[in-house]
Amino acid sequence: MVDDRSDWHLDRRVTVGLIGTLILQTAALGVWAGTITLRVTNLEDRQIEHVSEPAHRPMATEVAAMGARQSLILSRQEMILNAIEELRRTYRDSNQGR
Can you tell me the mean pLDDT for 55-71? Predict the structure, then answer.
């Protein structure tokens, strides 16, 4: 009599160890793929940040340099005004003695 069952079945020679190994390898493949996806995403994010940073960096450096220039100009102006005031005092004192 011919077996009418056309159901899929596993051969008796396939061991439990082989089935477990295949399951573990499949799970490891899934973990590895997830890790690679995460690493690629992180690298892409860093690349986007790295590409966008130089556009802001010169502007920030330029603003800082402008602030330093303004500070230097103001201190020079104060020195000049102090020197002028000192000259006025000296001129006034020398003219009062006449």
Answer: 78
Retrieve residue 24's tokens: 């573990």
**Tokens, residue 56:** 């802001």
- Any idea where the domains of the chain sit in the sequence? 30-92
d(CA 89, CA 83): 10
pTM of the model: 0.40
The DSSP secondary-structure symbol of 4 reads -
DSSP state of 54: H
Q: Which two tokens stand for residue 32?
A: 């590895």
Angle at 58 between CA 53 and CA 59, to 5 degrees: 95
- Give the pLDDT confidence of 32-62 residue by residue, as tens digits: 999 999 999 999 888 877 666 655 566 777 8
Give CA–CA dist 80/68, Å, rounded.
18
